[in-house]
Amino acid sequence: MSSQPPEKPKALDTYETLKLERVKDKVLHVELNRPEKRNAMNAMVECFNKIAQDSECHVVVVSGAGKMFTSGIDLMELGSTFLMIPGDDTARKAWNIRQKIREYQETFTVLEKCPKPVIVAVHGGCIGGGMNLISACDIRYCTQDAWFQVKEVDVGLAADVGVLQRLPHIVGNRSLVNELAFTARKMMAPEAESSGLVSRVFQDKETMMQSAFDLASEIASKSPVAVQGTKVNLVYSRDHPVSEGLKYMATWNMSMLQTEDILKSAQGIMEKKTTRQITYSKL
């Protein structure tokens, strides 16, 4: 009796500013695909909300097309958004502006809320909104020519969509974060690595992308129950005291410890298999 043919992954959605591709088993590549605007960002919320529900995807790799990673939010679009808010009442205009800011914040928070690990690979410049994006990712790689800039003070505003809240947790050096945010100076790749902003620096983009895909493939080979549960609890624990994090973890695992993946993993260890040789169910 012939076996059933493997199920084809479902078709990916298309976006004007994002290019999606399944590059390896359970690995999805999201490329910021607006090089004429230096990859100014939109469509992220819809894209990552769908990725969160995509059982064929266990890990995401984000990169930018063109000569640089991204220059951030489209300033022309941003300016028109806030200047065109109707009405003369200050309170009502302020309320609407706050709602717009919250929408822009969600553009980056959605990466953090996505239970699938997100690896970001940066080449060239990563400016303004790009810093907000990468600070919401789980693992950061860059090329040796990459540079990073919290640019907002140079355009007359305080960064308000995530980098000021997340970067101190990543770098762990409040003085350095303050310096970067107050001056808008560039941080080059060596300093980014030594400060902990990125975990690895590569000679060129091609080498970086291959390493990012290999890492994603390794993570994707493991139990999705374990990996996604780990991400959710890492994010929660960052923002809560240890005691609350432990309580949350206990509540989480009182159901997750009942997964079949534990038995499969134990059996695989006894049979001297790697996680790539164990078939875990979709999640």
Automatic annotation (TrEMBL):
Pathway membership:
Lipid metabolism; fatty acid beta-oxidation
Principal place where this protein is found?
other
Q: What is this protein called?
A: Delta(3,5)-Delta(2,4)-dienoyl-CoA isomerase, mitochondrial
What GO biological process term is on the record, naming one? fatty acid beta-oxidation
Supply the alphabetized keyword list. Answer: Acetylation, Fatty acid metabolism, Isomerase, Lipid metabolism, Peroxisome
Query: Record keywords: Lipid metabolism included?
Result: yes
Q: Which family does it belong to?
A: Belongs to the enoyl-CoA hydratase/isomerase family.
Gene for this protein?
ECH1
Give the Gene Ontology MF terms in alphabetical order: delta(3,5)-delta(2,4)-dienoyl-CoA isomerase activity
Q: Which organism is it from?
A: Podarcis muralis (Wall lizard)
